[in-house]
Amino acid sequence: MRRIPRMKDGALPTVAWMLLAMHSCAEQSCSFSPELLAENPLSAVLSLMSAFFQRYTTVSGLDGKLKFAKGTAVSEFHQHPRPKRPCHADLIILDPESGVNLAPPMSPATHILLVHEMLRARRGTEWQMIINRVCRT
After folding, report:
1. Is 98 exposed, middle or buried (0-12, 13-18, 19+ CB in 10 A)?
2. Which of 35, 45, 53, 54 is the most buried (most CB within 10 A)?
3. How far apart are CA 25 and CA 52, in angstroms?
4. What's the predicted TM-score (pTM) here?
């Protein structure tokens, strides 16, 4: 069965994925009106999922540092400015409370697999959004 690898397979722990998702949702939060959320909450969820996958499915999408301001949900993701080796991600996700890096070092093979599986999920979300639009019309 194909899937995004788990932490024991060299990927990210669940809390790291959660913080990446929180950051992605916060970036998109100003684009949703309360009317849209009330009218079609499924579209809003699909849009947020699509934004998450668009944000992190590039080769450099998981190469950077995610940091939350202490005691808030305000976050920043900074891409690493230096040239890097192809297919190598140096992801740092700082724990909002302790400042400890929650992302273990990732091998190039794991990085490629993550990007591939997230691209598959992204395509599935995009298809679902298209189907949702067609069904509403």
Report:
1. exposed
2. 53
3. 7
4. 0.81
* CA distance linking residue 68 with residue 125, whole number of Å: 27
Q: Which burial class, exposed, middle or buried, applies to 110 when counting CB atoms under 10 A from its CB (0-12, 13-18, 19+)?
A: middle
Whole-angstrom distance, CA of residue 74 vs CA of residue 76: 7
Quick one: DSSP state of residue 10? T
Tens of pLDDT along 115-125? 888 888 888 88
- 122 to each of 14, 21, 47, 103, how far by Cα in Å? 19, 14, 11, 22
The alpha carbon torsion through 122, 27, 113, 91 (nearest 10 deg) reads 180
pLDDT grade, residue 65 (50/70/90)? very high
Residue among 87, 89, 80, 77 nearest 52 (CA) = 77
